[in-house]
Write a structure and sequence with these properties.
Elements: H1 11-24, E1 33-34, H2 36-43, H3 47-59, E2 63-66, E3 70-73, H4 78-101, H5 105-125, H6 132-151, H7 154-167, H8 172-176, H9 180-198, H10 202-212, H11 217-225
Helix pairs in contact: 1-3, 2-3, 4-6, 4-7, 4-9, 4-10, 5-6, 5-9, 9-10
InterPro entries: GntR_C, TF_FadR/GntR_C, Tscrpt_reg_HTH_GntR, WH-like_DNA-bd_sf, WH_DNA-bd_sf
GO molecular function: DNA binding; DNA-binding transcription factor activity
Protein name: Transcriptional regulator
Amino acid sequence: MQKTKTRKPNLAFTIRDAIQAEIERGELPPGAPLEERALAAKFSVSRTPVREAIQQLAAQNLVRMTPRQGVTVSRMSVPQLRDMLELLGELEALCAKLAARRHSEDLHIALETALQRGRDAARAAATLPSGSIDDYSEANMQFHEAIHAGSRNELLIQHVRPLRRLIRRYNVNIRIMRTPAQMEKSIHDHEQILQAIMAGDESLAFRLMFEHVPVGGNGFSEFLSALPASFFEDSATS
């Protein structure tokens, strides 16, 4: 009887996924240096799989490899971030519009569950600020992902998710929801969006979701004010 060989996990893929997760969580912020020797020691491997992982991350535009300067987490210019948020706003709004068209009881339950989780996190923020912002951020993500799934459009979802992952390194949710008052505003937005979706009001769901995403006007300005200048590439050189 022929034995089945167990394929060993690819070290480069494993290291790539670990670094990518740290970038997306904001633990490795835009502009942070990545040093091969330090990463090899961290993961207890040789520098070869680390180098391969970095090359894969560079192909995804998550890191930048610059001659004589080394490797750093990729940074966007302010116009690039604005453009990405504008596009994300349109796609998120389209998800809400389609979710309103195709709403179901399952979607209603998923949205109510995420909304209640957000209320609980906001309530905790009033007395136990430590950790509550992260809790609310996760509840916010759950609410949006329920709407993505509710759109029932896989091609649209495939465009939304990579954009959200690209901008997640800037901790968008955390930086625009740093206080209980900001969380309450977000919850109010979610309540209105949920009502529009379940009423089947496509145009209202689209408008409310687009206004909810931090693009243009004061929303984008307030978001930028919470970010250090080191997070951004000079638009003249990007």
